[in-house]
Amino acid sequence: MNVPLAQRLRPKSLDQVCGQKHLLGENGILRRYLDSNKVGNMIFYGPSGTGKTTVAQIIAQNCQMTFHKLNGTTASGADIKAVLEESSGIFGSDGVLLYLDELQYLNRKQQQILLEYIEDGRVTLIASTTENPYFYIYKAILSRCAVFEFKEVQASDVLLSLQRALDFLNLENKAEKSAEKDALWHVASCCGGDVRKAINTLELLYLSCQDTLTLSDAQALISRSLSGYDREGDDKFELMSALQKSIRGSDPDAAVFYLAKLLDSGDIISACRRLMVIAAEDVGLAYPNGVVVTKSCVDCALQLGMPEAGIPLAQAAVLLATSPKSNSSYLAYHMALDDVKAGKGSDMPSQLKNNHFFGEGDKKNSYLYPHDYPNHFVKQQYLPDDIKDRVYYHFGENKQENAAKEYWKKIKG
């Protein structure tokens, strides 16, 4: 059987796991938890290739419970029930440890099947997921599990694993191949924190080289797919969040960095959409032309395509990051939306309705045309009766809105 190198080198103890010092180091929270000799329900959350499955298997090997492993992408409700039923028999007398990989792929009903069994301790669940469990996992399951986040492994830690992998391959093949330091570093830094991907890539590089693994060979072998960016998963939303928060925080350097990461993954649409949202939400009325310029930059980028699209989008990102900020219109909209969802303001004033004839008794409710009055303004009720005194919009503290505020004072007396 052609077993991948990462599988052949899978750590047998927590000390051999690459990275995750915050969990598995001397004072790591997960190590201290396991040292208590109590194995409870746990969810491991983080990117692929960061050690979630490895740690779960090490825990399983060190406990005396009957061990079962299922994968959420292929497991059916019948598969889960078969494991759970064993927990009630003689073979499950010491308890059953169920390891569920890719838990997020189980539907709600399948997750609910587990509840009774993990509640009374007949089954101990260790699950792993690459998605944020607080969004994808049934809350009743989540409340019964300790959640541990596995982080992207740093290139310096991956480099150590690659050197050990190279030594292993030489021993296995009775060879003495060497590697340029830059070659190993290139593999380590391009794997997106995925140790499994880095080790398996090293094996391909090893088999395709003669005596020395060179940087040029590593560059030729490694494709864009090693970036580690998942366009459908949390990576996408975390990058967009970082981009928006950097612009909101007026940091143009961080803004262009996160924009570059988005675009380098080929995800131009997400970058364009998020920049337009930022222009309206975070810059808003402090610089109303910001959204106009951003839309022009987005249109330009979509016509240009990559890689030139990064130029106008960087222009928009820097402009928004260095512009004054206001979220006054954003807050006003959401305050109004809260009232709409609460069922308020269901009947608008009659003079605002599309009525072209009023009866004799309705003349007092006739619409007053503002352009017929001084300063093009006349006082009349616009909001429904039950919220007629509601104030949603509050002027922001910036030059543009202060000017509008002074204009209001002038026309409204």
Overview features:
single chain; 413 residues; alpha/beta; five-stranded parallel sheet; 19 helices; 50% helix; flat
Your description of this structure?
Helix content is 50%, strand content 8%. Helix 9 packs across helix 11 and helix 15 packs parallel to helix 17 (310-322). Helix 5 links the parallel strand 2 (66-71) and strand 3 (96-101). The model has no long low-confidence stretch (mean pLDDT 84). The chain has helices at 5-8, 21-24, 29-35, 52-62, 77-86, 108-119, 133-136, 139-142, 155-173, 181-190, 195-208, 215-221, 234-248, 252-264, 268-283, 289-304, 310-322, 328-341, 399-412; strands at residues 42-45, 66-71, 96-101, 123-129, 146-149, 178-179, 212-213. The longest helix is centred in the middle third of the chain and has 19 residues, at 155-173. With 413 residues, the protein is an alpha/beta fold. The chain has 19 helices and 7 strands. The protein is flat, with a radius of gyration of 30 Å.
